[in-house]
Amino acid sequence: MIRSPLLLPVCLLAALLFLPSGTMVGIILAVVLIVLAIAATWWFSGRRRHSLEDVRTELAKIDDLSGRVPQPDGGGEVARLARTINSTLSRLEGAKTEMDQALERQRRFAADASHELRTPLAGLRANLEEAQLHPDDTDLDELLRRSLRDVDRLQAIIADLLLLASVRADNHRLREETDLSEIVREEVTRGAHRVEVRHHLDPCVPVEGIRGQIGRMVTNLLENAERHARHTVEVEVRRSGGAADFFIDDDGAGIAPDDRERVFERFTRLDAARSRDRGGTGLGLAIARDIVLAHDGTIETSTSPLGGARFHVRLPLAGPPSRWSHDPAAWDARTP
Q1: What is the reported pTM?
Q2: Which of 76, 94, 288, 302 supports an S-S bond with 220, CB 3.0-4.6 Å?
């Protein structure tokens, strides 16, 4: 391939020097070749200038990152330049889309958080105004109880917001190997439950992570299941290949298929009749999802064998694969 159009006439002029002197045919042939070389040089240069001008013109017209410049065929310099420009525009467009989505999520989150914080603040203000306007008719003990309840709710929302802001930070240096079954057992047996909670736990299911965050994820899912169960909640931890599977099932009303992604959004209420008085800040499932994702896991919901909702968390097992299967009979054991 001729890299420069000037190379051709130079070669032809050099060949002219070797023609026999006085040979008319040779002179005529040399003149013809030189003319052809000049024409070829002009044609190649014109094509390159034309292609570069097309690229420059289209690039100047682009006013948003979805535009592209014309891309000539072949592997020439102009074609490679056009491909590089289009590739750069594609990456910039993707980065801008991600930034716009992140800004929209932040805007929605700020609006939702403001609304959630406004509710207990309004209740607290109403209690104080009532005491100020009608001091003789105010039951001080009842007013203090209501005010403390609103303060507790404010503290819970703020604590959850702070946790959400920090859980996705780089935490790899804080991770350690911990037993998922042990964490689940501790959370299940920590206190009294509104409904029956049954658990079936494989012994020694090692995962790598921050123990406090994993415990918070388990607690949030357990509280959510108890809140919506009628009579029973079942919890199970088992090994599956190189993963630790954590299931939590309830016998409540379940979650419609169209809502199974939305349920993990912040401050989501699938049923307007479910009031905040039943507990929760509206952030529990969002926190659980973020903790799972921060630990390189997955979380999804489906229909439970009990008839309600099933939440399934999968986390990678810790350590080398040689430790993942000791005695198969041991992994079939069930904790009573």
Answers
A1: 0.61
A2: 288
